[in-house]
Amino acid sequence: MPRLESLELTRRVLKHFENDTLDIADDVWREPRSAYVDPERFRADLRMLKSMPHVIGWAGEVAAPGSYTTKNVMGVPVLVTRAKDGVLRAFINGCAHRGAQVAAEWGTTRMFSCPYHGWTYGLDGRLTGTPARKMFAGADLEQRGLIPLPISDQAGLITVGLSADVDVSAPLGDISVPLSDYGFGHNHHVETRRFDLACNWKLAVDVNFEGYHFPYVHADTLDPLASNNSVIDIYGRNIRWSFPFRDIVQFRDAPETDWPDQFFGTVVYGLFPSCVLIEAPGTSQMLRAYPGKNPGETVLYLSIGAPKEITTDEERAWYKMGIDGAAQVLDGQDFPMAAACQRGLEAGVDHVVFGRNEPLLHHLAAVRNQALAG
User: Fold this and answer.
1) In the chain, domain spans
2) pTM (2 decimals)?
3) What per-residue confidence (pLDDT) applies to 38?
4) Are 91 and 125 within 8 A, CB to CB?
């Protein structure tokens, strides 16, 4: 984050500390239970999500020619590559023979080999080898490569579409400006963990965008360290929530020249429709939430990134501690609350209420509804 922007955020949160306030909405918002439990709404959510571009990783994961990474996006196996020509590409990670995945995890390679029957592919997706090729005469093998998907790199973030008609040319809009300064184009993937949650995908996203729950859910983790004297910024469908460490008050009477270059707190970005970036001193995390098989299920991936390749045991241990801590807060505290909310809604709670102190939840509900109608 540029120093000028960090200074502006610091000024805003220190003003809230002085007045014991936070950025708020003008009114309350009521969202019907159907948004979380209704099968028809669930099917509409799926259609909307499949039509949208999805941020799925940091461009640094495939910065070098010959590198690749794999992702699961709404149940679609996706393969991202950078061939020797330097071009970033995405494909359905499915062999043109029977559909088996030709790559797993991430790394570098010269070609992909299907583990089922040994068909091979270049990083550009072309079919390069077929055992017993003469047995497939008439199958137009020259035309059978990996199926391409739309892909772009904006602000150092990899965005894909799940079908050829999804426009990924400028998925981030104006929020690409603050995101461009994080150096995501150099971020290396360290580890990803999957969580299968008993809640609607929207609840899994929303837990990341309000601090009203800090004293109750995070009494022994976040609340002693962080304050809800927070500020919000809206960039079209995308959002930014910045909440400070409590110790930021030490800078209240200090000259701005002595303030830290990086915002002294946590900055959380919501990239529509379901990607969350969490940036704080020393940590870079990405959450991707997708609907499961019914309205009350979510598949969520938590990834942690590093500004350079991890090469030592000490570095691995440090980043493991980081993702362990994130998992403790999310899976140990936030996600059980989301599941509890789902149970209540399924039992008959008729709607949820977002208070004026939860302004980003108002915005998320509004833009989802707009996308469904659009």
Assistant:
1) 3-53+172-373, 54-160
2) 0.97
3) 98
4) yes
What's residue 67's pLDDT? 98
CATH superfamily to which 3-53+172-373 belongs: Naphthalene 1,2-dioxygenase Alpha Subunit; Chain A, domain 1 (3.90.380.10)
| Res 213 pLDDT > 90 | yes
Given a contact cutoff of 8 angstroms between Cβ atoms, the answer to whether 120 and 112 are in contact is yes
Burial 342-369 (b: 16+ CB within 10 A, else e): beebbeeeeebebeebbbbbbbbbebbe
Q: At the top level of CATH, which class does the domain 54-160 belong to?
A: mainly beta
How far is residue 359's CA from residue 366's CA, in Å, rounded to a whole number?
11
Number of neighbours of residue 47 by Cβ within 10 angstroms: 9
At 252, the pLDDT band (50, 70, 90 cuts) reads: very high
In whole angstroms, what is the distance from residue 53 CA to residue 201 CA? 17
- Neighbouring residues of 111: CB distance < 8 A, sequence distance ≥ 6: 120, 121, 122, 123, 128, 129
Cβ atoms of 158 and 62 within 8 Å: the answer is: yes
One-letter-per-residue 3-state SS of 18-43: HHCCCCCCCCCEEEECHHHHCHHHHH
pLDDT at residue 3 is higher than 80: no
Which pLDDT value is given to residue 4? Answer: 85
Segment 180-197 shows an average pLDDT of: 96
